[in-house]
């Protein structure tokens, strides 16, 4: 709280300054001084809690030692980055990370949009609300619980779907511990957990669409599907583009907790991602400099990807992210 | 009422059918957890419980709701969520609106600053040192302030403001309204659906977060509910060789786990239905705006 | 238009109220905070008493309402009996969070005066010692800790050292037992089978169960959590721990020729459906459920998991008898499950502490029998009665379960007594009887290369072993594993451990 009020302090001093200088045309931006005041507290929090700690990333270039502290530790140059690029394991981990994210982008990402549109098309208000509320329930379950649910579901001999597996002749396949299915299980469980939750953002975007547009489309004789195509989807396009860009930017990030919960040594070759790699390296042995270097590499690639994606989206006539 | 075409009727049926399917898929596992929490322990361990309780009992809830730790962490969570959401949403709307005005100098750079933090996150250690420097350790503010202004929410709000036609702002200026007046009297009422959405996102984020608490809070009576929840869920198998733990592990049973999950989730789940009225209002306002 | 302005005004007022409420609440909670610190500092602390901050492991015990970790009978009693104003703090329970928290605390320089680490935290102890974050204790122990020094043999003190200097104080745990073979004895009896004594017996028993009980898996395991679920089978081939002393040298058991025979046997069992095919996704909770619900007949399980499982099985099948049986002996005579070291805990004093001497004095005092008894059982006459030299708990004992947080120096006899009092002897004793093999890693001081590589090497082993057992890879892949293990530095780890255990050659 103290931070917020401190930042507000200039507010008290400013009015005087403003009246003096307002006459001068070159200070026209002062006319919007109140917009800057609106911005100030949020920006201050950002600088204080997100940017100030970033200096800590310097330990990626140092041999960090707790006793010596962040500044006192000796410089290591690019040692930890070289270590990373020379690690054979890193490349398989990188590949898995990118692939899992790509699958999620292709198969999981469209589902919430679809669900939002379907819910929006429901006319029965009570049903609409009930379906929204129920589909977003799984978001609140933690991965421990969800992994237990999926293990139970996919156990071919004792699980809920055992009869189905027998029918398909799959009674010996443990999908969760099978390299062929593991990534699919990750995508499916993430979809189950997040589809309803993610659809909320699209639903709220759909609400901002001018209802007259629907009337106009109806006048033209457009059916429901054509209304969706020509009015709803274009209306939420900016949100869709924003979320795609974010996903592209986090192509090297993963839900570590999810992977850890489904992980077993049998699927190490397809399921080990950067997050779990860092988790294991960092856990017993506390190699801070190394894990920070990995994080820095992840962020750098993410930054490049998001800037590129933003460039192309602008080229195709979308709004820039910034 | 207009006559519906055949295609329209088919569309409705298919839509209802698919949504019903989605509801069932999401609901059944949740019902299973609820059913377990109302069943007696041996039925749960034996794996007999489906979507309906067996040997119905509320014992697990008695245990959970009489636990002092549950009650204290529950109130901490409510406090953090309510205060945090109020501050956070206010700042998000302010920041999002300011940054949606193109004439604002430096708007581009500041937007980039926000986007950047979504990808580049500072480490635990330097963040801890900042929180410590500010004297926030062992205070609920350490759970609120570091999360202030989520870039994601801010960008969503900003997108919404950007999409509101400029003519509205101009007509406000014609009436002699300043920026703040325009924001409070024209923009915020129009943006209620998106504000409700960000409020929901914020509240859920505060409610579900636990790692900050584990780092910044060492006073047991200031720990939030999620910490308690995770302790109960993860409490198996590390009891290894500690007789006090073994004896007490018999308490942390499956049905109690179910009860804790239900008791810790229900309050936040109920936020959404409450906010849904703003979602409907948005439609009305949308019409007015045209 | 008019309508909209009104609406706006309403929102304005709402916002104003909200902001007001926030400020009010902020003041409120701030005040609350102040109050709580005040109460803790206004406790009866005389000037001459030094305040010692102690960070201890978390546990499941809850404090009754109105009490907390620094305000209860036990904490107050310890202050009174030792003369030190000890302030306790609990670590996070989550292992990852605990490690992070310890690290940030150390890095911030604002450390407690004493940290009590548990056995699995050994890498953390090694790491702190290596980075020079701990107070060397040798001279302090000589001056102020005579009772502490007497507790352990010089051999046992070795594990508290780092490069020859003592950085930790250690104590004893009553239990060295870990995993045992839990079986449905009633099923064995029903099918006219004897408890298996040899590898062949074992195989025949599993086969018989499979043939006569088609709905029951003979043996289930929690392989999703590692290889411990097969310990009863592995113990017929080699000591089921990572590193053992053999012929005067430390060896890695997974690299022994016996490991290959184990893989051959285990993959045969798996292939014939004698080991649960779902083992690879099972966690401990799943095998407990399978045993309790009659879906499985046997499993390797920790002794502490058995009571709940047996109770649940009894409720479902009143005639069932789920009990630990001895693991069979291998054809090469190999026998015995893993055993953990009775030396436990690391009491470390961060270098940033200004009260190292007082901490040692406090701990020295805490070794006294009276204090140990008090922490173990509470107050005689209130929480327990003495009968035949044994402590028999009264009902009051249930109200001080939180005493577990203050457990410092323990004695094996007292631990066993508490275990018996809790009714756990039927599960503990049979497992303790077959606990034979100790991991060399547990017996030596921390070795950096071991802490760094252990996890990676274990992952590699688990991956190959599980793939071979489940048939995803042929038995010949074992040689590939050995190559990769060597490439990953496995031999260096063995060498380092050998030097640490047998001395430099």
UniProtKB/TrEMBL annotation, chain A:
GO biological process terms on file: transmembrane transport
KW Methyltransferase (keyword) present: no
One Pfam assignment: BPD_transp_1
CDD domains assigned to the protein according to its UniProt record, in alphabetical order: TM_PBP2 (cd06261)
Membrane association type: Multi-pass membrane protein
UniProt entry keywords in alphabetical sequence: Cell membrane, Membrane, Transmembrane, Transmembrane helix, Transport
Domain ABC transmembrane type-1: start-end pairs: 94-309
Subcellular location: Cell membrane
Record flagged with keyword Acetylation: no
Membrane-spanning parts: 35-52, 101-122, 134-154, 228-248, 260-282, 288-312
UniProt GO cellular component terms: plasma membrane
Matches recorded under PROSITE patterns: ABC_TM1
Family listed: Belongs to the binding-protein-dependent transport system permease family.
UniProt name for this protein: Putative aldouronate transport system permease protein
From TrEMBL, chain B:
Pfam family, one: BPD_transp_1
Keywords: Cell membrane, Membrane, Transmembrane, Transmembrane helix, Transport
InterPro entries named among the record's database cross-references: MetI-like (IPR000515), MetI-like_sf (IPR035906)
Boundaries of every ABC transmembrane type-1 domain copy: 74-272
Cellular compartment(s): Cell membrane
Entries under PROSITE patterns matching the protein: ABC_TM1 (PS50928)
Main location: membrane
Cellular component annotations (GO), alphabetically ordered: plasma membrane
SUPFAM superfamilies membership: MetI-like
Biological processes annotated in GO: transmembrane transport
Cited PANTHER family: ABC TRANSPORTER PERMEASE PROTEIN MG189-RELATED-RELATED, POLYGALACTURONAN_RHAMNOGALACTURONAN TRANSPORT SYSTEM PERMEASE PROTEIN YTCP
Designated name of the protein: Putative aldouronate transport system permease protein
Organism encoding this protein: Paenibacillus methanolicus
Higher taxonomy: Bacteria, Bacillati, Bacillota, Bacilli, Bacillales
Automatic annotation (TrEMBL), chain C:
Keyword Repeat: no
TM helices/strands, residue ranges: none
Signal peptide: 1-26
Keywords noted in UniProt: Signal
InterPro entries per UniProt: Bact_solute-bd_prot1, SBP
Pfam families from the UniProt entry: SBP_bac_1
Protein name as it appears in the record: Putative aldouronate transport system substrate-binding protein
Species the sequence originates in: Paenibacillus methanolicus
